[in-house]
């Protein structure tokens, strides 16, 4: 699915169902991080790659809107946003891309790592949409699943436009291999990527 080489173990949904408040809080932070990293890419690469600026500023707005939606759900359940925990999945993926860097352009890897994070979120939101018994929450994740698929296409499309389809797809496959090892090695917990 969307370039991923290893499906998530469906038992992950059981871990999530045991701690929905934990999942929602982690998810809220993921949306904030997505907004933040889109703007960081603009700040870092907007000069050399001005075609990124419009789509990534728009993406940051959308991700901030997702954060608000998740935060509203947390509040409606009587909960509150928990302190941010570090995301071992994202850190490991960025480290793996660095280990594999070679002569690959830094921007290409940033775009492809972002594409893979969107793809994994999409895959996991699809599991939640299909398996959560709470209809309203399942519907929410169905909507977000579609957004994440669109974001995967945005990042992989930006990479292909700038670096060529053949090179981008070759590198995406290589990084997807590392992503599969990382995703498989993480304990199944009530977090979007854990
Ligand atoms: Fe989002
Ligand atoms: Fe996204």
State the gist of this model.
The chain contains 7 helices and no strands. It has 194 residues and is mostly helical.
Shape: globular
> Which ligands accompany this protein?
fe (ii) ion
- What Rg, in angstroms, do the CA atoms define? 16 Å
* Helix proportion: over 70%
Overall residue-averaged pLDDT value: 95
Unreliably modeled segments: none
Class derived from helix and strand content: mainly alpha
* DSSP helical segment count: 7
Strand segment tally = 0
Terminal CA distance: 18 Å
Largest sheet: none
Strand-residue fraction?
under 5%
Protein model, in words:
There is one protein chain. With 194 residues, this protein is mainly α. Helices cover 75% and strands 0% of the residues. The protein has 7 helices and no strands. It has helices at residues 11-17, 20-45, 53-76, 88-99, 106-131, 135-163, 165-185. Helix 2 (20-45) packs antiparallel against helix 3 (53-76) and helix 5 packs antiparallel against helix 6. The longest helix has 29 residues, at 135-163. It is globular. It starts with 10 loop residues before the first helix and ends in a 9-residue tail after the last helix. It binds fe (ii) ion (2 copies). The site of one fe (ii) ion has 6 residues, from helix 6. The site of one fe (ii) ion has 5 residues, from helix 2 and helix 3.
